Amino acid sequence: MVPVTGTTGTLVLAGTPIGDVADAPPRLAAELETADIVAAEDTRRLRRLTQALGVHTTGRVVSYFEGNEAARTPELVEALTGGARVLLVTDAGMPSVSDPGYRLVAAAVEKDVKVTAVPGPSAVLTALALSALPVDRFCFEGFLPRKAGERLGRLREVAGERRTMVFFEAPHRLDDTLAAMAEVLGADRRAAVCRELTKTYEEVKRGPLGELAAWAAEGVRGEITVVVEGAAESGPEELDAEELVRRVLVREEAGERRKEAIAAVAADAGLPKREVFDAVVAAKNVAKDAAKGAAKNGTKDAAKD
To answer: Could you report the per-residue pLDDT of 240-280, keeping only the tens digit for each?
Structure first.
């Protein structure tokens, strides 16, 4: 148990190698040796890392992973408010980037605890740099949903995103994901699949999504990061009424109110809100007329019987 000092401690988020141990930031070794508590996503991997770096942890080592972070966070915050220096490391890369960490950072900040970081390797930035795609503007989408329907829905949400997009994916789902991307974003959309970054069998496969999907169908192993080109700039004249309505529906399915969805689609397309509103109303009327026609035909058929 860390003694109470009367002053708050410090939470340190430390980046760890994503492959090559030689990429470990110099400060990582010092933090591992001096931290009062080391919270690790996997304590076994932490042990291998410290052995590779030739360092010895003097503080208490605890596990902090998806399954126990809700229960362990209060314990770590209590130690921080008591003056402890807590080092948080995950299996690879920066904590809280698709890894445990956000919950602890938020709780620490709420208690006015200092939070700092030891910058380190990042699969996101490494993949971007190697992709040969524009990197002046980009966004990180993390892992897509596992269920096919939800995955398609998420991809439809980002179909018009103009920034380069970065995704993480499990190797056994890569073929399905690339096929879904080709379907929603277009088979000709440029992308790069980055596999085993900084490791012995590092590979970067670049090409159109359609070709990458066919390549992945044969099976791919290792840690995967996918970088996808953003949507091409499009003017209002390129978006017909059907596409405007589709975009509004996608936003509504994601939880937005129709008014806000219409305003957002209009802004993205550079169109007056009235034009998008009229397209939605027209589509609604067409659907109503079709439903009435079907009901009327059903009534006639019943009468004949």
So the answer is: 889 899 999 998 888 889 999 999 888 877 788 999 999 99
Tokens 């401690």 label which residue? 9
State the pLDDT confidence band at 233, using cuts at 50, 70 and 90.
Answer: confident
Tokens read off for 234: 């499009």
Q: Which amino acid is at 269?
A: A
Q: Model confidence over 142-172: pLDDT tens digits?
A: 999 999 999 999 999 999 999 999 999 999 9
Angstrom distance (rounded) from CA 187 to CA 182: 4
C-beta atoms surrounding 11 within 10 Å: 29
Pull the structure tokens for residue 146: 């596992």
In 3-state terms, what secondary structure has residue 209? Answer: helix
Q: What are phi and psi of 205, to 5 degrees?
A: -105, 120
Contact 159, 231 (CB under 8 A): yes
Q: Compute the distance between CA of residue 265 and CA of residue 92 in angstroms, rounded to an integer.
A: 38
Sheet holding 114-118, edge to edge: 60-63, 37-40, 85-89, 10-14, 114-118
Query: What's the confidence (pLDDT) of residue 37?
Result: 98
Query: How far, in Å, CA of 53 to CA of 13, rounded?
Result: 18
The end-to-end CA distance of the chain, in Å, is: 83
Q: What is the DSSP secondary structure assignment for residue 192, as one 8-state letter?
A: E
CB-based contacts of 108: which residues, under 8 Å, 6+ apart? 11, 77, 80, 115
In this structure, the number of other CB atoms found within 10 A of the CB of residue 100 comes to 24
DSSP state of 17: -
Only one residue has tokens 């990429």, namely 23
The whole-chain average pLDDT of the chain stands at 90
The torsion defined by the Cα of 20, 21, 27 and 32, in degrees rounded to 10, comes to 140
How many Cα atoms occupy the beta-carbon half-sphere of 157 within 13 Å?
A: 16
Q: Which residues lie below 8 Å from residue 1, measured CB to CB, with a gap of 6+?
A: none
